[in-house]
């Protein structure tokens, strides 16, 4: 038998290697079932969010975040605060109050519901107002999948999120609220 043909046949019969464990190489901000507090450096906003689900680890996710400096036109944030807490096991929508942008996240895991409570760290930029807001599609598209949001266009910012929670699958899907911010001062507050 031709040695090249034999090598090809043997390679086709070899067992398939298990899925890559690339998720161990990420800079996760938490361990499974542990709380975390992540804040962007002053003058930066959240631009990327990644998570990896594990049913074996309490139906929890590892989380990773990335920040980017805001455009010069926005100026420096004049105030930052932790917004309302969003309870574990519930569906919720949360948008930074006072036209704020998300610049951090903190979360605590609750074993009793196999879910987390969430809180956004928001920063206010003078009297800038959001416009051209939109919600992303579900992230992840299906429960228990890896999830990733990278803001698709410079000039958009995360203002909040809407989530659904599956009590059966013990996981969340997220729709992030993305907005542009005016280049001029405005007198009103969009909620």
UniProtKB/TrEMBL annotation:
GO biological process terms held by the UniProt record: collagen fibril organization
InterPro entries cross-referenced by the UniProt entry: Dermatopontin
Endpoints of the signal sequence: 1-18
A GO cellular component annotation in the UniProt record: extracellular matrix
Family: Belongs to the dermatopontin family.
Protein name stated in the entry: Dermatopontin
Chief location of this protein within or outside the cell: secreted
Domain of life: Eukaryota
UniProt keyword terms in alphabetical order: Disulfide bond, Secreted, Signal
């Amino acid at each position: 038998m031709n040695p090249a043909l034999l090598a090809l046949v043997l390679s086709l019969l070899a067992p398939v290697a298990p899925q890559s464990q690339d998720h161990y190489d990420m800079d996760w901000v938490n361990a499974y079932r542990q709380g975390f507090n992540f804040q962007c450096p002053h003058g930066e906003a959240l631009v990327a969010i990644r998570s990896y689900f594990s049913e074996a680890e309490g139906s929890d996710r590892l989380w990773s975040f990335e920040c980017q400096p805001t455009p010069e036109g926005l100026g420096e944030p004049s105030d930052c605060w932790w917004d309302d807490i969003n309870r574990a096991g519930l569906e919720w929508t949360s948008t930074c109050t006072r036209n704020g942008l998300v610049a951090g996240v903190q979360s605590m895991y609750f074993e009793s519901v196999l879910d987390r409570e969430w809180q956004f760290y928001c920063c206010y930029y003078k009297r800038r107002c959001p416009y051209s807001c939109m919600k992303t599609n579900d992230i992840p598209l299906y429960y228990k999948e890896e999830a990733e949001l990278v803001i698709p266009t410079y000039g958009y910012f995360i203002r909040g999120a809407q989530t659904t929670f599956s009590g059966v699958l013990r996981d969340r899907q997220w729709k992030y609220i993305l907005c542009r911010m005016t280049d001029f001062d405005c007198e009103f507050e969009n909620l």
